[in-house]
């Protein structure tokens, strides 16, 4: 009976690992795509940020026009390095959750302002409405947090996974 539980634990761990890899792959695609879209259409990105009902954003738009996509691409690169360095992968997940939370606050401000302004996300993602963005980002925030918890737990219980290989 103990062997059966052990085998079920290994199978469950492998499924969770596959799910975390899938979530990270989606985050890489998301951040690489939106970061590059913002760089490629920098003028539009800055123009749309200047329309936002956030006074500080209007002044910082040219600076944010470089910083935001740079951070997004750095996060995507962090995940790439994280394939080889576990600690970098977890830091990239933390960075992605933090950045998505910042975006959530911006989206909430846009919803509360009642403004019908275009999204500044870049690329096809910008076709979503503000409420859709709220749920979209919320999904990635939740899965990012769950991935962090799983990877931290895996690091402390890794002998179980390695024994089955």
Describe this structure in words.
The protein has 165 residues and is an all-alpha fold. It is built from 6 helices and no strands. It has helices spanning 2-40, 42-51, 55-82, 86-113, 130-156, 158-163.
Quick recap of the structure?
The chain is an all-alpha fold and 165 residues long. It is 84% helix and 0% strand.
Features:
165 residues, mainly alpha, 84% helix, elongated, disordered C terminus
Helix/strand layout:
Layout: H1 2-40, H2 42-51, H3 55-82, H4 86-113, H5 130-156, H6 158-163
Query: What portion of residues is helical?
Result: over 70%
Number of strands: 0
Q: State the domain count.
A: 1
Strand % is under 5%
Average pLDDT works out at 86
The ordered H/E elements are HHHHHH
Low-pLDDT stretches: 158-165
- N→C terminal distance: 20 Å
Radius of gyration: 19 Å
């Amino acid at each position: 009976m103990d062997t059966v539980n052990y085998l079920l634990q290994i199978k469950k761990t492998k499924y969770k690992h596959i799910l975390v890899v899938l979530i990270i792959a989606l985050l890489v695609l998301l951040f690489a795509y939106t970061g590059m879209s913002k760089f490629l259409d920098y003028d539009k990105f800055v123009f749309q940020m200047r329309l936002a009902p956030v006074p500080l954003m209007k002044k910082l738009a040219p600076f944010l026009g470089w910083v935001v996509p740079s951070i997004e691409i750095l996060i995507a690169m962090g995940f790439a390095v994280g394939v080889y360095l576990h600690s970098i992968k977890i830091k990239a997940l933390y960075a992605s959750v933090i950045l998505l939370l910042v975006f959530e606050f911006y989206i909430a401000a846009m919803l509360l302002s009642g403004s019908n302004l275009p999204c500044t996300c870049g690329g096809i993602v910008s076709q979503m409405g503000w409420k859709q963005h709220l749920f979209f980002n919320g999904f990635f925030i939740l899965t990012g947090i769950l991935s962090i918890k799983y990877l931290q737990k895996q690091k402390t219980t890794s002998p179980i996974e390695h024994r089955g290989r």
